[in-house]
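>> received
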Amino acid sequence: QVQLVESGGGLVQPGGSLRLSCAASESIFSIGAMAWYRQAPGKQRELVAAVTRGGHSNYGEPVKGRFTISRDNAKNTVYLQMNSLKPEDTAAYYCAADLGYGLPDTDTEYDYWGQGTQVTVSS
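>> returned
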């Protein structure tokens, strides 16, 4: 059982930056893709970014060019650097891990989820 713990959320002004971290309870060398999803009140959960074991990444359209996902296998941690934040980025952000290969097509394919961290973008 892999436990994922997110941190780094908070309140930030529009145009600001935040870095989220997701620490895994065991080595992520054995984990395939890791991803960040988000869910705003009244909306469906959506992909923010995902990265494979080999470093191939994928981003949701609303965050392309602003967010960067990275993984540090030595620290068992995945990061999400969020720049040029907008009010519409306000959501609970969740870390997910998949034990398979490649990038999952949907969130239902991920095996483990964290509890989430809140990001609020407001002036």
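>> The chain has a mean pLDDT of 94.
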